[in-house]
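Lecture notes, continued. The same structure-token format from the folding unit now serves as the input rather than the output. Read the line below as a description of shape only.
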């Protein structure tokens, strides 16, 4: 019975971690969606222009 209790506690910890990671993933997806699609291309062009 003690082992069952330990496993249930571990499951609860892992479920909390999954929830935390899902929230972080959602936050990052929203942040990525808010950026213009070509921000990487613009950054590369700007970097290349500054090198010249």
């Amino acid at each position: 019975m003690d082992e069952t209790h330990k496993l249930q506690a571990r499951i609860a910890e892992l479920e909390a971690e999954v929830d935390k990671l899902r929230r972080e993933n959602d936050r990052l997806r929203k942040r990525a969606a808010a950026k213009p699609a070509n921000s990487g291309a613009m950054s590369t062009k700007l970097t290349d222009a500054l090198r010249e």
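Point for the exam: The two ends are 71 Å apart (CA to CA).
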